[in-house]
Amino acid sequence: MAEIAALEISIKLKDIKPAVSRKLIVPVTIRYDQLHVLLQLAFGWTNSHLYSFRVKHQPDREYVGYVDDMGIGGEQILASQAYVYPDLQNNEILYTYDFGEDWEHVIALKRVLTFDEIQGVQVPSCTWSRGANQAEDGQDAEAAVEFNRQSLNQELTLWSRAGEQMIRADDLGLIPKFY
């Protein structure tokens, strides 16, 4: 049996008309914090708000960027400490960004890809899209910005080269810092 190298996932922004969705190819080893950055890029956002991931069959567990020490709610796990694929194998994942606006997304596994199947394919990459990028602060359809898949794939190429810098930087790591 061939070894799994990547995942094709679909991401649909809930409760938005006209529909907004993306298909991405991501490494099988992607963590939740890394997926958060890719979703920020894919939807044209700026990583300015908190986020969480929840697995549909485990509503009391959430993966977060920062653990809430108040003890409110269910189990919180740092997004940097968990991989997406084990949860995504048999379940959809719900991604919420900006708890004020409550941008909710449904993430589903479309297919797994072997090393042979990704020969010549950029990983990560956006393979399909529908709908414009929504304004981050405010669900105003008139403020939507046209989506550009070629530009996104250029940013994803930068992401794949930047490593952890992308996770830790306020600018998503796209602007190099020289210290």
From TrEMBL:
Gene3D superfamilies: MM3350-like. It holds the Pfam family PRiA4_ORF3. It comes from the Bacteria. Residues 6-141 form the Plasmid pRiA4b Orf3-like domain. InterPro entries: MM3350-like_sf, Plasmid_pRiA4b_Orf3-like. Coiled coil: none annotated. This is Plasmid pRiA4b Orf3-like domain-containing protein.
